[in-house]
Amino acid sequence: MNTFFKADEPLQRVDGKMKVTGAAKYAAEYVLPDCRYAVLVTSSIAKGRIKSLDTKAASNAPGVIAVISYLNAIRPPGYAADNEHPTEPATGGQPHRVFYDNKVYFNGQPIAMVVADTFERATYAAHLVKAQYIVEEHLTDLNKNLDKGVLPASAKKNPKSPLADYDRGVVDGYKTAPVKLEMEYEHPAEMHNPMELQAIVAHWETDDKLTLYDKVQGTQPTQQNFAKEWKLPPENVKVIAPFVGGAFGNALHNWPHETAAIIAAKMIKKPVKLMLTREQMFFMVGYRPGTFQRIGIGANRDGKLVGISHFSIGQTSSYEEFTESVLQQTRMMYTAPNVSTRYRILPMDVSTPIWMRGPGEATGAFALESALDEIAYELNIDPLELRIINHTDQDPERNMPWSTKYLKECFKLGAEAIGWNKRPLKAGTLSDGPWKIGYGMAVGTFGANRRSAKVRAKLFANGSLLLQSAVTDIGPGTGTAMVGIATDAIGIPADQITFQLGNSEFPVAGNQGGSSTVNSVGSAVLAVCDVLKQKLLEMANQNMPEFKSATLEQVTFSNGGLQLKGGSAKTTIGDLMKKSGSADLDLIEEAKPGPEAAKYSKYSYSVHFVEVRVHSITGRIQVTKAVTCADAGKIINMKTAGNQMIGGVTGGIGMALTEDAVMDHRFGRYMTKDLADYHVPVHADVPHIEVRFVDKPDYIVDPMGTKGIGEIAIIGVAPAIANAIFNATGKRIRQLPITPDKLI
Amino acid sequence: MEKENATPNPRRDFLKKSSLITAVALTPTAAIKAADNQLDERIAQAIENVPCSIEINGTKHTMKIDPRITLLDLLRERLHLTGTKKGCDYGQCGACTVHVDGQRVNSCLTLAVMNDGKKVTTIEGLANGSELHPMQAAFIKHDGFQCGYCTPGQIMSAVACIREGHADNEGEIREFMSGNICRCGAYPNIVAAIQEVKKGGKNI
Amino acid sequence: MKQFQYIRSVSQKAAISAITQEPKAKFVAGGTNLLDLMKRHVMTPERLVDINKLPLRDIKEENKGLHIGALALNSTVAEHATIVKKFPLLAEALNAGASAQLRNMATVGGNLMQRTRCPYFYDTTTPCNKREPGTGCSALNGFNRMHAIFGATPHCIAVNPSDMNVALIALDASVQVSGPKGDRIIKMQDFHRLPGDQPEKDTILDKNELITAVTIPASTLTHNHYLKVRDRNSYAFALVSVAAGLNLDGKTIKVARLAMGGVAHKPWRLTAAEQSLQGKQVSIEAFQQAADIAMQGAKGYGHNDFKLKLAPNTIVEALKIASRI
């Protein structure tokens, strides 16, 4: 097997210099000649119809080129028609069709768009568009309508769907346990709020050729979506996104503003730039759905779980079904013989949610891992010990072996680093003056996913290597990881390797999401390097007498060359290619998961430990220490991987303590809709965070042995913090975010 | 109130007022007529635009611009200095941080015309030619970013934080860097980068 | 943003004249709040009079008190050696507000004129009496977590968002203004107003008046603390804040100054609580009693009910930290 990346000397980010000098270009930063500015006008009601739209003042405002709405917008030929059988609700629904008709489905919905010669003029004129509505009664309050939840369409169709009702053992078997608890947990809608505002420059190069500079997590999925929407061959749609200023899931979907910009560019026959405002980011580009959960948990006095019943209901829109995997961890993490899960969604008059980092799993883990902690106190067992007692060596949901599982090693690493032995057994007993101190931990897990992917390699006669993939990098350092994999595989120095990404014309890659990029694209990098090595060896066999009969096993690829093992014969790749009279090598290789993988349950694991201080008088909360441990398979780059873990903990601090998208249900409108009112963690909220990786490969998942990091970094952080707060104060808060008012 | 049948024209109202006080050799009626008939955009703009001169990264820019343009949009949309980022446009994230006369400010909350006669340094003007500024180098070394979008603002802010004398310890750095949000959550690495530059003791 | 005329003033006289000519004119200095509000069309001035070139930036000691020019930056004031030494409450309050960047832009005069952060005031699609008189108060029965517990009326329950104002009122500051009718001095206590039935008016300043300076009398406070409780550890508006200043002679309180932020339409001076502390020995009991007195007449509106407990807790804690007991 390959011995992968030298963790002690991680590569610095290959695009670091571009990012620190301002040279990295994000979607809105492409300068196209004759580009015009589009600004959206949004609805101020949550449900109804537009009665009239007054666009006269806007049309007359200086610099305005067009005011576009359902009244005059050209209609993308691929817009799906309304459901033909209105009595049968659509299964799954469809994305919102911007400017399609006068219906309003959610507050903040784009209802018109002004295109002008400058941003200032477009923005001003957008304020002059006035709408009158026929208002209909809206439904936006999840907590008041918990009984109205429905089973997702996919679960209705397929009882084996992971979203379908699940029972292992006796239904609600937890009730038979000697120690049992029933709790309800809630969290509000949370907004991804990447620092880069959603932006697009749409350019029709010809009547049927579209180029998009767009903030997306997948160039090719976006290409396919818009090719379908505009009934174009996919190759006529080009999507460029080499830099993406964060996304955390909100660019896994294409949204109304993208189609709006494309419509505008088509109508005015010029490139159009559209950047959402921060407020608009709260209304139309997805969010983590507000979710209500109920857990029943029962255990024997010795800590062995008897059963868990877990119910979850989350919000979705009225026009498009959104689901996420909230209950997976409950089904597979612990040995409990009786497990029941029920997943429901509630369509409301809101926009469609979208997966937000650690998506449903982070939601479910908040309830499950809080419940574990609660019953641990009830049993008077250390919560870490309780998890070890209920540890399972095979997947109890699918009755399959794990590919790898080093969760217990994570427990050990983390407990040592945080000083778990300092944790008081009894809550509310450790303090420093007015500050109460507590420790908490929780577990996270996420599927180690892999998709097929292709990578192109161009090996030049000077020995440098160019790799290309359509994949994007929203921040984890994809290019850096890929260069790391390639340099390790083929021995060309990292500074001689370029990895180009973020272009739909490059070879196949899916969305950057679900912690699957390195597993998928990295495997293709490895595959293409393997072929290159074979070709180079053949050249050496033919052109260099010393290598005449050498096999791959007998040759080392390092320092940009080939060397016979145990011999002195060597050559640089450049020399070899010149000697062979070889042209540049140019090839594309595909890598996909093999059949072996299907025989295993494959997951990444994380364990988060935190120390908190809670001020007993003012309720101020400070996370003072965090240790995050991961079994994420082999780590390709300790520096960027560690950074992802730190970022996940930071996101988890936000989820636990600060983030709250508050909706005023009288208007069906968010009231905390900028970064002053919707609090994401700032520097002062985030302590030093220690990262520990088990760093053991899982070759079932992929040939590098990686499993994925992005999601597990946040899954379990919120309950670890909630558990620490309980340990500090004796107050169990089951409603996120945990703000000072809840602790005084 | 406009009459029911009159076409609303905000520019007309604006010009009517403006031309009364602007030193343009044009009667108010002529200005309005020009705007109404869209005869001469230049005449209208002569009234609407305001002269200003700003030195940006050592280069003096003398312009007549719409006074509504923020310094941020001037940099990004007019001068194509897109290293300065728009993250919120309301002074709530710090991505647009630049130095004006040496002080860190949010370029989204200052009109370009208010910076007449001032010196602006953006991320593009921080490095010394191809040699990175020590803070830029430290950000790379400590991996003080992920997506890179908040990074120029973090770096401009970090340089100022040290110059202001607010980088003596981790706690102080965190407090005085809290105006720069990093949603990827690279905060601890950013703090490490700032500490290293501070400890390096170089005059930055 | 709506189009506006932009005028750079080079003299106080020209500035006042420029603002007087146009009924919808506004002064702009730092612009950190005004531009924010203009971008959202909450404020739509037709003329901006840029006063940044006026010579109003000086900070100097005057009769052991302090004169701070209206255009002095928040950061300059917070870092000023005399202020840090003799008026630490003001320095602490300023540093508790906004971010380093914003403090480098915002002026003392602008901070005094800062408008509420009520989300309904900011959202032009919702009714708000402060923004559009007569439309109603959306916060009264809405999302009012950040809102007032003192002095509110059914017309408006918004709070003044400034930290600086809380320190200034505790320090008995005055505001010097200049207008077409001449100069006047307004006591900080009178400068901001309660909403009554005219919540559109934040202060008693006339539209054409220019703030020229803030003055603070000599301070005898020996023990000070500004304590701000917020939803994250920095860069957030106060849930509740307390400026506590004491003159201690041994353990005896000779003078007490207390003011709160985040609880009313204006910075909220706690005069009765101050009086209750006068002459007492420092003790948690005395502080608790003062807090109880301070809370008389407080009223919650739902989401902000927690302030009825958080506010007195914060008073006690601020006094505790100030007096170092």
TrEMBL record, chain A:
Residue ranges of every copy of the Aldehyde oxidase/xanthine dehydrogenase a/b hammerhead domain listed in the record: 21-137
GO molecular-function terms, A-Z: iron ion binding; oxidoreductase activity
SUPFAM superfamilies: CO dehydrogenase molybdoprotein N-domain-like, Molybdenum cofactor-binding domain
Signal sequence bounds: none
Coiled-coil blocks: none
Classification via Pfam families: Ald_Xan_dh_C, MoCoBD_1, MoCoBD_2
Domain of life: Bacteria
Record InterPro entries: Ald_Oxase/Xan_DH_a/b, Ald_Oxase/Xan_DH_a/b_sf, Ald_Oxase/xanthine_DH-like, AldOxase/xan_DH_MoCoBD1, AldOxase/xan_DH_MoCoBD2, AldOxase/xan_DH_Mopterin-bd_sf
PANTHER family: DEHYDROGENASE, XANTHINE DEHYDROGENASE
The name this protein goes by in its record: Acylaldehyde oxidase
Lineage: Bacteria, Pseudomonadati, Bacteroidota, Sphingobacteriia, Sphingobacteriales
Automatic annotation (TrEMBL), chain B:
Domain 2Fe-2S ferredoxin-type: 50-126
Any one Gene Ontology molecular-function term assigned to this protein's record: 2 iron, 2 sulfur cluster binding
Keyword annotations: 2Fe-2S, Iron, Iron-sulfur, Metal-binding, Oxidoreductase
UniProt cross-references to CDD domains, sorted A to Z: fer2
InterPro entries for the chain: 2Fe-2S-bd (IPR002888), 2Fe-2S-bd_dom_sf (IPR036884), 2Fe-2S_ferredoxin-like_sf (IPR036010), 2Fe-2S_ferredoxin-type (IPR001041), 2Fe2S_fd_BS (IPR006058), Aldehyde_Oxdr_Iron-Sulfur (IPR052914), Beta-grasp_dom_sf (IPR012675), TAT_signal (IPR006311)
Keyword match Metal-binding: yes
Entry-linked PROSITE patterns: 2FE2S_FER_1, 2FE2S_FER_2, TAT
Name the UniProt record assigns to this protein: 2Fe-2S ferredoxin-type domain-containing protein
The organism's taxonomic lineage, starting at the top: Bacteria, Pseudomonadati, Bacteroidota, Sphingobacteriia, Sphingobacteriales
TrEMBL record, chain C:
Annotated coiled-coil segments of the chain: none
Domain of life of the organism encoding this protein: Bacteria
GO molecular function terms attached to this record: FAD binding; oxidoreductase activity
Family matches, as Pfam families: CO_deh_flav_C, FAD_binding_5
Residues in FAD-binding PCMH-type domain copies: 1-221
Keywords from the UniProt entry: FAD, Flavoprotein
PROSITE patterns: FAD_PCMH
InterPro entries: CO_DH_flav_C, CO_DH_flav_C_dom_sf, Diverse_Substr_Oxidored, FAD-bd_PCMH, FAD-bd_PCMH-like_sf, FAD-bd_PCMH_sub1, FAD-bd_PCMH_sub2, Mopterin_DH_FAD-bd
Protein name per its UniProtKB record: Oxidoreductase
Annotated organism of origin: Pedobacter quisquiliarum
